[in-house]
Amino acid sequence: MFDIDNYFENFVKTNKIFEERNILRPEFVPKILPHRDNQIRKIAEIVACTLKNSKPSNIFIFGKTGTGKTAVVNYVKGHLNIQCRNSELPEPKWISLNCQQVNSSYRVLARICNELDPYNPVPIAGWPIDVVFDKLIEKLDTYVHGICFIILDEIDILVKKMKKSHDILYNLARINSRLKQAKVNIIGISNVLNFKNSLDPRVLSSLGEEEIVFPAYNAQELKEILDQRANFAFQRGALAHDIIPLCAALAAKEHGDARKALDLLRKAGELAERRQSPSITSDFVYFAQNDIEKDKMKEYCESLPLQSKAILLSIYAMQKNRAGNAIITGDVYSCYLELQKQIPGLNKLSQRRVSEIIRELDLSGIVNAQIKSNGRYGRTKFINLNIPLEDLNKYLLNENRLNDLFDYRPKCIGSNITCFKGQKYVKLG
Ligand SMILES: Nc1ncnc2c1ncn2[C@@H]1O[C@H](COP(=O)(O)OP(=O)(O)OP(=O)(O)O)[C@@H](O)[C@H]1O
Ligand SMILES: [Mg+2]
């Protein structure tokens, strides 16, 4: 039997890993941000005119995920606010929206209104958009006595999803001409580097008055970022000397993501702590990496559209019931046709579209779709899941419409007919 009291006692006695684990959390803003001097300086130079009560230029910030965009903006914000207070100027108002969560033009405007005046909220839907825009102008002039910074994080999502967002962005970028008292500055952040190409040139010229690029970190830079955080986060002796270089190297191998490097280090520490180990060894880093990969796969599966989930489920059902035998696109399609009839509200896709989705799943790494040459029968794509069956089962649990289908045994398994480019063929041997 697990001796829980003994476990807790030992935990307190042997807990020699963390000094302050919150320092490794993503929301923590460190006092210094190594290797971001250039970006901090550029943003500071642009926003400094706030201290003379002038409106800074709008800014576009580009950089892959985990390259410090949010951290740098928050860092500059903190220092600018202090300077305003010291100079007895009104502190700027900062409104930050993540366009992944607030993903329609209406909701962006309504959300800004409601941040300014939470006591008289604009309804989340229902008003004509120009009425919400007029309301926003009224609220800005009433509640802002200086500069209002509007940070639109993941702005590319807004543009991709909403054709009308171009008009809204254009009007937002030009809003100052309609304001009597307040001044608005827009900071757009995107981790899609070529996102500019998809922007209406009018929007680009007014929103992207200044552009700042955040390059990915290399292994050495990540190592210095981790060193600086680890100094305060861990107890003395908790880290073997090779741990930080290992976390930095693993994160640099992906795309130089500081969040990934910090997550690896924190998770490795937590695993060592749970096992009541006196220090973090490289094994814990590899375990942590494994856990992070699993979390990422789960998040990816949960965010897939229902059609892709149905195709994943078809591969699952074929693999589960056909232990060991090869699965080809035609098999997946036959199984998909059976499942599609049982999933409420799911349209039937063509085999070509299903093939494309399998290719996307292959690119994400969740499925392995390998083309093999079959001698005189041509080239065939062999498909299998890249994760254990039971893991996929867990990752798709949140999709109620699929819940009853995990034990489904495809009828096409007993048949020697397969589909290929819309035609039915008899399988050979
Ligand atoms: N130069 C740095 N020094 C110290 N910590 C850093 C540095 N750059 C990034 N970090 C840390 O890495 C994590 C991720 O950074 P941040 O959230 O700023 O990335 P991002 O570029 O905004 O990513 P995303 O595009 O996913 O929003 C945060 O915990 C942040 O504190
Ligand atoms: Mg960010």
What this model shows, in words?
The chain starts with a helix and ends with a strand. It has three domains: 37-214, P-loop containing nucleotide triphosphate hydrolases (Rossmann fold, 3-Layer(aba) Sandwich), CATH 3.40.50.300; 218-301, Orthogonal Bundle (Helicase, Ruva Protein, domain 3); 306-426, Winged helix-like DNA-binding domain superfamily/Winged helix DNA-binding domain (Arc Repressor Mutant, subunit A, Orthogonal Bundle). The chain has helices at 4-14, 37-47, 69-86, 105-116, 129-143, 155-161, 165-173, 201-207, 219-233, 243-254, 258-274, 282-303, 306-321, 329-340, 351-364, 389-395; strands at residues 59-63, 93-98, 147-153, 183-190, 210-214, 367-373, 379-385, 417-420, 423-426. By secondary structure, it is an alpha/beta fold. Helix content is 48%, strand content 12%. The strands form three sheets. A five-stranded parallel sheet has the order 2-3-4-1-5, sandwiched between helices. The chain is built from 16 helices and nine strands. The radius of gyration is 27 Å and the shape is globular. The structure holds adenosine-5'-triphosphate and magnesium ion (MG).
